[in-house]
Amino acid sequence: METHESKNEIDVLVVGAGITGIYQLHRAREAGFTALLVESGSGPGGTWFWNRYPGARFDSESYTYGYLFSKELFDEWEWQEHFAGQPEIERYLNHVVDRFDLRRDMRFDARVTSAVFDERAERWTVALNDSAEYSARFVVAATGVLSVPFFPAVVGREDFRGESLHTGLWPIDGVDMAAKRVAIIGTGSSGVQLVPVIADDVASLTVYQRSPNWCTPLNNAAITAAEQSDLRVNFESIRETLNTSIAGFLHEPNDKSAFDDTAEDRQAFYEVMWNSPGFTKLTSHYKDILFEPTANAEWCEFIATKIRELVDDEETADRLIPKDHRYGEKRPPFVNGYFEAFNNAHVSLVDLSATPITRITEAGIETGSGLEEFDIIVWATGFDFGTGALNRMGIRGREGRALEDHWADGPCTFLGVQTTGFPNLFFPGGPHAAAGNNPRYNGDQVDFITEVLIDARERGNSVIEVDPAAEDEWTGMVDRWARHGSFTEKSYYYGTNVPGKPRRYLLNSGGRPKLFSVIAEVIENEYRVFRPSPPE
Ligand code: NAP
Q1: Is 0.90 topped by the overall pTM?
Q2: The domain 9-42+108-148+385-533 is classified under which CATH number: 3.30.1360.110, 3.40.50.300, 3.50.50.60, 3.90.180.10?
Q3: Which atom of ligand 1 is nearest to the CA of 496?
């Protein structure tokens, strides 16, 4: 597309080597664009590079999370477990990068410090932390939704003299926890994965819980030889299902409502759900389980009973049972041995709702009931979800407008891929992107963006900028439909976990069907929505 005056002038600059960015680099190159991917980490993986804490693993089935664009790739990579652990995931992503010879167009340890749109040249000037500068016609910021770790403003956090870690910034060389006194603050999906995996090694483990979550078993297993063979034989139908299913999973939906069954049958079905893998507890549950309050309460009571059975100490069990939200109001974590870990004498639970942290000292954590000393404090306190990375990248659009100002009241987007005033900038896998098995939605967006770029090239358009009316319509849909979903403002999906962040829904509340239908309309209208009108 471009006449290349220097090797720093490219068609497409991709930011982020997560699942989405790697795929975007592949698609852009395949379509004949010159492309470069820059990544702040020292290797590929994105969230699966940074979140290398012990126990980190998929909770979507491995073969539904990986790429589907190449049958050969699918055939040759044998996932070892239905829910792969971080090391295997990282190996897979490195394999993909090498398999498709992508590494030569990737730069690691390269953090974007600013991206400024030059209106005269109709190009982005992108600066990196090492003083390199690139001029790109298009920027695709695949910076992810869970890439900016959140540390709460607890007094004295910097004073701690031991080792202070965040699950989302786990050291590449690992951490020796053997015989150490360890604290974990936070009991979201990350904290509850970490607890059982380190419990046996450490001298003591104290879990600081502000609010418990509705955790149910992941029910992971090794993939048997017969299953491996079925996956290969059925690749085309698996791909078809994943490419069209509502939430990007293979799971069979359930057309029954809870009260279609007798009380006895419901209990039997809850038992089936408890023993079913991962997200089937949402996708294959009674179709009204998230919205029918009595059924939801009954399912919660079923889980509470399980927790009481699994945890020996009654008081601890009771503290592990959520009282402040129904099932599905927040993203539920999936666990393996989490509740059982509290049966170890050296593992304890501090209920921060009763005794909040007053401060961190040089030696440990002080709460209303005194100081406990530690060698390691792990902050499993989550992320500035959705907009965190994009708002920190120094993105400046038309007339120098800062993206973080444009989104001061929360994100407004078209299809979760573009926003007005920031021409030639795309952000697949960001705000308004996914609401299910992320790589499937994000891959849909990458495919779409690639078609938009190809269309612009064919027409000789150098500027792609969404019509404000289309953006208003999409954003209005996201905000309105969010009110009908199961997640509420108690969830970080509304930005609630970060003080001062606008309360605005950050997922695609229309889901994949809405994404597909709007994409189909855009294509039918020959991408007109992306062609700015000439000035009058
Ligand atoms: P999270 O779900 O946001 O959980 C953060 C935890 O930190 C919560 O328990 C929160 O308590 C606590 N916290 C925050 N501020 C605190 C404070 N000031 N004092 C005490 N506790 C505080 O973060 P996460 O566990 O990292 O998970 C984020 C998301 O990453 C997940 O929902 C999931 O989408 C993804 N993830 C996926 C997997 C996987 O299996 N594939 C694994 C890990 C993470 P409150 O609840 O009271 O706010």
Answers
A1: yes
A2: 3.50.50.60
A3: 48
